[in-house]
Write a structure and sequence with these properties.
The chain is an all-alpha fold. Among the domains are: 57 residues, no CATH class; 49 residues, no CATH class. 58% of the residues lie in helices and 0% in strands. It has 9 helices and no strands. The chain is elongated and about 95 Å long.
Length: 161
């Protein structure tokens, strides 16, 4: 059994002699590989395949071939999952790359403290569309929960120019 296990685990089952394949086909009737290998070597049809053909036909069309390239390519989701499974999740800049600080919040200057929806409406009433749009953008940064509302207003202002 040791030699057979070696052939099975190494994927070299096709290298087994006919006598050994016949012994496998008799011993394990449910295992179609030895039968199919013998049939291919002899140029005959596999009896198990012929017997099961009518049954397979009743289930519908044949299974499409497997795209090996699709199985071996790594998708973006898989790449991200692999990265997240690693223990050291630090991303270190390589040499030569500029080291810039990543901002997670908008930086507003002191003048931006004076922004309000009323000020934006006054700018709009006076015809200062650019100032009104800029004010709504600042309001959107300060109030992210209303960013969709402000985006619609900005779109209306810019589309009426």
């Amino acid at each position: 059994m040791g030699k057979l296990t070696e052939y099975l685990t190494s994927g070299r089952l096709a290298e087994l002699p006919d006598a050994e394949l016949e012994r496998l086909a008799v011993r394990w009737e449910w295992f179609p590989v030895p039968r199919r290998l013998l049939a291919a070597r002899r140029g005959t049809a596999d009896p198990g395949a012929v017997a099961g053909a009518a049954c397979r036909a009743s289930f519908g069309p044949e299974v499409p071939p497997v795209d090996a390239e699709l199985l071996t390519t790594v998708s973006a989701e898989e790449l991200i999952d692999r990265f997240l499974q690693e223990e050291d999740l630090r991303i270190v800049a390589e040499e030569g790359e500029p080291e810039t600080e990543v901002r997670t919040e908008a930086e507003l200057d002191e003048e931006d403290d004076m922004v309000s929806e009323e000020l934006a409406e006054i700018y709009l009433a006076q015809g200062f569309r650019d100032r009104a749009a800029a004010t709504y953008r600042k309001l959107s940064l300060r109030n992210p929960e209303k960013s969709v509302y402000f985006a619609e207003i900005i779109h209306k202002i810019e589309s009426n120019n």
